[in-house]
Specification:
The protein is an alpha/beta fold. The protein has nine helices and five strands.
Length: 215
C-alpha cells in the first residue's frame, strides 16, 4: 500500500499568517491543515501521513512551548517548527532542546520555512517506518511461548546455550530446539540480527518475557 501524501499542520491565531503559509505550501504541492488554536488541532481528525507542525510560539491560553509538552504527554510525536514575531535566544534554546526542528522569526523567509518543513517530514517518515517495524517485531515476539521468551532474553543478553540450560533448568538440547523455534518465529537471519531485534523491543536481560516497545 502506498504511503499517504505528507501534510503540514499550521497552528497560528493570526489568520493572515495561516493564509500566507497555506499559499506557500500549496504552491509547492504540499497539503495543509490550519488551525487558529491548539485545541482545534487536538479535536480535529488528522490525516495519518508523514506530518509536521508549524506552530506559533505566542498563542492565547496555551503557548507554543507549553503545547509542545502537551503533545509529548498525549504521545503525539510530530516534529515542530516554531515561528514567532518575538523570539529570543532562551526561548529558541528551550524549544530546540525539547526536540523542535527549527525556530524561525517573522516575517518568515520562504525558503528557510520550506527547508525546515522538508527536514521535519523526512524525520517523521523515518519515525513512522521505525514504529511500523517495531510493531511487526512485537507481533512476532508475542507469538513466542513464555519459555521461548525466557530463552530469547538470555540469548540476546549474550548467554551461550549451556548457561541458558543451567539457568532455566533445561537440557542443552532443549535450549537449542527453543533457539531454533525462536529464530524461525522472529525470522532472524543470525544471532546479531536477533540481538538487534531484542534491542528494538527492549527485551535484553528481561527473562520474564514482557517488553516495553520504544514506540
Amino acid at each position: 500500500m502506498s504511503e499517504a501524501e505528507p501534510v503540514v499542520f499550521v497552528i497560528d491565531d493570526d489568520a493572515s499568517v495561516r493564509e500566507a503559509v497555506e499559499d506557500l505550501l500549496h504552491s509547492v504541492g504540499l497539503r495543509v491543515q490550519s488551525f487558529a488554536a491548539t485545541q482545534e488541532f487536538l479535536s480535529a481528525k488528522r490525516t495519518d501521513a508523514p506530518s509536521c507542525i508549524v506552530l506559533d510560539v505566542r498563542l492565547p491560553r496555551e503557548s507554543g512551548l507549553e503545547f509542545q509538552q502537551t503533545l509529548k504527554k498525549a504521545n503525539i510525536h510530530l516534529p515542530i517548527i516554531f515561528i514567532t514575531g518575538h523570539g529570543d535566544i532562551p526561548m529558541s534554546v528551550r524549544a530546540m532542546k525539547s526536540g523542535a526542528i527549527e525556530f524561525l522569526t517573522k516575517p518568515l523567509h520562504e525558503q528557510a520555512l520550506l527547508d525546515a518543513i522538508q527536514a521535519a517530514i523526512a524525520r517523521d517518515r523515518a519515525r513512522r517506518q521505525e514504529a511500523g517495524l517495531i510493531a511487526e517485531l512485537q507481533q512476532r515476539f508475542d507469538s513466542l511461548t513464555l519459555r521461548e521468551r525466557e530463552v530469547f532474553a538470555l540469548v540476546v543478553a549474550g548467554c551461550p546455550s549451556k548457561q541458558i540450560a543451567t539457568q532455566l533448568n533445561l537440557s542443552e538440547m532443549t535450549v537449542k530446539v527453543h533457539r531454533s523455534q525462536i529464530s524461525k518465529k522472529m525470522r532472524s537471519k543470525s544471532l546479531i540480527d536477533l540481538a538487534q531485534m531484542g534491542e528494538k523491543l527492549g527485551v535484553s536481560g528481561n527473562v520474564l518475557g514482557t517488553t516495553k516497545p520504544k514506540y
